[in-house]
Amino acid sequence: MSKVSNVPRLNGSWSISEDSLRRFVLHASGNCIQELLSASMSNNHRGGGDVKGDYYDGWKVVALEENGIEISKRRSGSFNSFRSRWLLKSVSPQQFITVANAIDAAKQQWDADLVEAKYIKDLEDNLSIIRLRFGDHSKPLFRNREFIVYERRETMDDGTLVVAVASLPKEIAAGLHPKHNNSIRGLLLQSGWVVEKIDDDSCMVTYVVQLDPAGWMPKCFVNRLNTKLVMIIENLKKQVLACPTNVVNS
Hints:
Layout: E1 9-10, E2 13-14, H1 18-41, E3 55-56, E4 59-64, E5 70-76, E6 79-88, H2 93-102, E7 114-124, E8 127-134, E9 145-155, E10 161-167, H3 170-176, E11 184-185, E12 187-198, E13 202-212, H4 219-242
Parallel strand pairs: 9-11
Antiparallel strand pairs: 1-2, 3-4, 4-5, 5-6, 6-13, 7-8, 8-9, 9-10, 10-12, 12-13
Helix pairs in contact: 2-4
């Protein structure tokens, strides 16, 4: 486990070597990956018997969309985690690759409110530091917020893809990238994707998010976040359906 408690502080930020940063982020992202896998496996093969309001492993189903997307939430300490899931059936090899390649925190296609996504540093081939910025005209939940996050991509032995995204501690983030003008630096506690192959040529796509956007959201914003989760999965779904099913990756 990497420790950062003895790193020198400079004006509210930490000056940290790249090696120490890499070790810290590898440890943090490893924990995030395990949490994402746990969330995705929570009653993953129930066969569509979910009922709104039911609880499974602490997850409460709050919405079942007509398009097959399930929205759930779970209390995690003083925060709520939100999860959206979608079962993609009869997946060709090329469609699975399309899903995997499309998932990228720095791609603005997932969120119309995202005005800038910039890579700050690559720590390893599958591990990057990214700045996400939301503008003045974004919805209230994200208006004028920015997040300094890591993104780590891992493929498990069974072919499951996990993409973990979470904020760096604010002192480390400040040392890597000064805050933009009058923007507010939010905290993405945990988020990410799990794309799991299932035996019958299907795959389960799970997206989990837990965040504090610098001022936790009032209850009226929860519905807006749920809508955003549906939109994110829908955008992915459109890409998959546009992919030819008869193309096999060479």
